[in-house]
C-alpha cells in the first residue's frame, strides 16, 4: 500500500476557495501558532479564528491541522 501526498483540491482551487482572512489564519496555524496566538496577531477573538478554521476545513474537505498545514505549504502560505 502506498500513500501519496495529494491535496483534495489543486492549489489554485484551494487558493480561490479561501477568503483573504481565512488564508491569513491558515498561514498562522501552519506556522505553528495556537488559536489564541493567531487571534491576538490578527486582532480577533479565538472564537472567530476557530470559525475561520472550521470554514477552511469544510471548504478544503480536511479534518486535521496536519492536512491544513500541508495545503498551506502547497499554496505557498
Give a topology summary.
Layout lengths: L10 H7 L2 H11 L4 H8 L3 H15 L4 H11 L2
Helix pairs in contact: 2-3, 2-4, 2-5, 3-4
Would you kindly provide a written description of the structure presented here, covering whatever features stand out?
The protein is mainly α and 77 residues long. Helix content is 68%, strand content 0%. The protein has five helices and no strands. The protein has helices spanning 11-17, 20-30, 35-42, 46-60, 65-75.
Task: Give descriptors for this structure.
mainly alpha; 77 residues; 5 helices; 68% helix
The count of DSSP E runs of length 2 or more, i.e. the number of strands, is 0
How would you state the average pLDDT, rounded?
84
**Low-pLDDT regions:** none
The oligomeric status of these chains comes to: single chain
Q: What string gives the helices and strands in order?
A: HHHHH
User: How much β-strand is present in the residues?
Assistant: under 5%
Could you give a short account of the major beta sheet? none
- As a whole number of angstroms, the C-alpha radius of gyration is 12 Å
Derived structural class: mainly alpha
Q: Please work out how many helical segments DSSP would assign.
A: 5
Q: What distance separates the N and C termini?
A: 31 Å
The gross shape turns out to be globular
**Portion in helices:** 55-70%
Amino acid at each position: 500500500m502506498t500513500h501519496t501526498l495529494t491535496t483534495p483540491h489543486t492549489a489554485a482551487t484551494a487558493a480561490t476557495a479561501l477568503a483573504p482572512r481565512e488564508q491569513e489564519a491558515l498561514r498562522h496555524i501552519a506556522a505553528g501558532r495556537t488559536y489564541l496566538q493567531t487571534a491576538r496577531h490578527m486582532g480577533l477573538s479565538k472564537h472567530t479564528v476557530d470559525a475561520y478554521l472550521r470554514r477552511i476545513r469544510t471548504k478544503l474537505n480536511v479534518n486535521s491541522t496536519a492536512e491544513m498545514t500541508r495545503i498551506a505549504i502547497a499554496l505557498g502560505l
